Amino acid sequence: PAKVFMGDTGSMALGGAVAAMAALTRTELALVLVGGVYVLETMSVALQVISYQTTRKRLFLMAPLHHHFELKGWSEQKVVRVFWFLALCSATLGVISLGPAFWR
Hints:
Blueprint: H1 8-24, H2 28-34, H3 36-55, H4 65-71, H5 76-102
Helix pairs in contact: 2-5
């Protein structure tokens, strides 16, 4: 688990640079796949807000999704290990999605 956090300014600059590089190289799909955990976390928040505003019911105990698992009783280490595995899988899919033509 992290002991130091980048903050909003650093993360926005880094995210903008990565998104710009994906747009310039036309690898937007790969970016979404490589960042699968970030997409999952963001979508869990969006779905939680939409669900609560429309039905007054929550989909998760808490959003983002990793907090839901913590409230379900998972240890922080287990959550981190599961999300590392998901990140590895999504990064692999992202690299595969580039196809052999990208690597020539």
